[in-house]
Design goal:
Layout: H1 3-8, E1 9-17, E2 21-28, E3 33-40, H2 45-58, E4 69-73, E5 78-81, E6 86-88, H3 89-96, H4 101-119, E7 125-126, E8 135-138, E9 143-145, E10 152-153, H5 184-198, H6 205-214, H7 226-259
Antiparallel strand pairs: 1-2, 2-3, 3-5, 4-5, 6-8, 7-10, 8-9
């Protein structure tokens, strides 16, 4: 931070430092609140362009699973965002190991909801960087999607993305170029990759079927929308609840049969 920024913001800790930007948790003396200050690397034109695009996208959005843009500082190539206290799903997985089918399905449904919100914007917003490191699990147990530096507005007339951005292992094949521009199905590929990464991979053919469809190499073989993914995940969750209820009923019945004369 320069001297002007330091007068207003007290640095609490660094949340991230990449080739594109520094992300800082700060105390805002002006408003007496915590915030996240994202500062683009001033010597990187692409980083500054991405931050301006992030600003223009966040200005349009209002959703509980997305940080709110509080203020922008064009001279300093920085934006101030609301702070979501918690840990990333990657940190949570590192501490606790992979998660049960039920937990992964519930997180998948929540992520489908926020992706639906982004994809229903006019024009659609393609997030392009869905990964466990960009998903915050708050103390309340809710999820927050952070870092919109790779996000873009879908442009029907475009043949390719202007910038090929994303994270290896989670980005869809078309995000590397040569397969047309990224669209809503690109985010669904990343959704499948995230859920597969978090899952403890028990025998569950139904969840595996959903994830395999998300992870199809060619976009036209994937789900057409996040609503369609959410529909199948909800079906899976209802089936699991019925199985658990049936199991509990069976155990109670057997206990009564043994205990009663």
């Amino acid at each position: 931070m320069n001297k002007k920024m330091t007068r207003r913001f007290q640095l609490i800790k660094e949340l991230g430092n990449s080739q594109m930007a520094r992300v800082l948790l700060v105390w805002d003396r002006k408003t007496s609140t915590y915030g996240v200050l994202k500062i683009a690397k001033s010597n990187d034109a692409i980083a500054r362009t991405c931050l301006q695009k992030e600003k223009s996208i966040l200005e349009k959005l209002s959703h509980p699973m997305i940080p709110r843009l509080l203020e922008s500082f064009d001279d300093e190539h920085a934006v101030l965002l609301t702070y979501a206290e918690g840990i990333t799903l990657q940190e949570y997985r590192d501490r606790h190991g992979p998660f049960s089918t039920r937990q992964v399905v519930c997180w998948g449904i929540a992520l489908c909801e926020v992706l639906s919100y982004l994809h229903m914007q006019q024009p659609s917003i393609i997030y392009r960087d869905l990964k466990p490191e960009n998903i915050i699990l708050t103390k309340m147990g809710t999820l927050v999607l952070v870092d919109f530096g790779c996000a873009r507005f879908y442009k029907k007339q475009n043949k390719e993305d202007t910038l090929c951005l994303g994270t290896k292992g989670f980005a869809a094949p078309e995000q590397y170029g040569g397969m047309g521009q990224s669209d809503v199905r690109s985010d669904l590929y990343a959704l499948g990759a995230v859920l597969f990464h978090l899952w403890e991979m028990k025998e569950d053919d139904e969840l595996l079927t959903v994830l395999r469809r998300c992870l199809q190499y060619f976009p036209w073989y994937r789900y057409p929308s996040s609503k369609a993914v959410r529909k199948d995940l909800n079906k899976l969750l209802r089936k699991r609840k019925k199985r658990i209820a049936l199991l509990i009923f069976t155990v109670i019945f057997l206990l009564l049969a043994v205990c009663l004369p």
